[in-house]
Amino acid sequence: MRCPYCGNADTQVKDSRPAEDNSTIRRRRECSDCAGRFTTFERVQLRELTVIKKSGKRTPFDRDKLTRSIMVALRKRDADPERAERMITGIVRQLESRGEADVSTEVIGRLAMKGLKAIDDVAYVRFASVYRDFREAGDFIKVLDELGGDEE
């Protein structure tokens, strides 16, 4: 692992411990040249995934992009960040265990919506509005009906 401060390739692990739900290892490292300290996280990756976008373009799967979009949906909501991280890890595991290296944005979106629905209804609607590309108020009404929002 290269030092983020000086670029030296010789860094030493000073401490390792499980993080999150034991699916990640947190490592404290120190550079032998500049003595800079930094933290890295190590995850198991079962397979390389390729995302097939609606346009047909193929890009490498980016867990961080999925995390950012889910965290945007959960912003200012009273949701447990650890629960969200477990949900994201679960989505990635489901994608990796499908047996196919190619996955469509539609599959990723459906899994994210399913997970968000279990965590927070407002976050679910926020995510759905982007994922389903809402164009008018009626689109929101349809999603609210799916949630049972028509009970008054």
Your description of this structure?
This protein is of the alpha+beta class. It folds into two domains: 11-43; 50-147. The chain contains five helices and six strands. It has helices at residues 63-74, 81-96, 105-119, 121-131, 137-147, and strands at residues 11-19, 24-31, 37-43, 50-52, 58-60, 102-104. The strands form two sheets. It has a three-stranded antiparallel β-sheet, with no helix packed on it. A hairpin with a 5-residue loop joins strand 4 and strand 5. Helix 3 (105-119) runs antiparallel to helix 4 (121-131). The longest helix has 16 residues, at 81-96. 15% of the residues are buried. The model has no long low-confidence stretch (mean pLDDT 88).
Q: How many separate domains?
A: 2
Strand adjacency order, main sheet: 1-2-3
| Shape, per Cα inertia axes | elongated
Q: Tell me about the biggest sheet? A: 3 strands, antiparallel
Task: Name the helix and strand elements from N-terminus to C-terminus, one letter apiece.
Answer: EEEEEHHEHHH
Count of DSSP-assigned helices: 5
Unreliable runs: none
What is the total tally of β strands?
6
- The averaged pLDDT comes out at 88
Radius of gyration: 19 Å
**What level of helicity do the residues show?**
40-55%
Strand content: 15-25%
| Structural class by helix and strand composition | alpha+beta
- Span from first to last CA? 57 Å
